[in-house]
Amino acid sequence: MLTTLSRILEMTRHAVAVFRAPETPLPVKLLLASGLVYVISPWDLIPEWVPVFGMLDDLALMALLITWASSFRIDSK
To answer: Which pTM does this prediction carry?
Structure first.
């Protein structure tokens, strides 16, 4: 369990680093930012008050974006 949580934290940190890196293309940054806006906005495809599925679409999108951002390599200086 602890290994899984540390892996998720590591992937999230990498996604933030990808977003902040100057060499990351603008379309990638826009997609990551729009995904974050979708997750925190009150307007959703499936509203939060729908049991289970209301939060599931937000969690699935975040997992997808974090995994996708983890596939990018950035130059560490």
So the answer is: 0.72
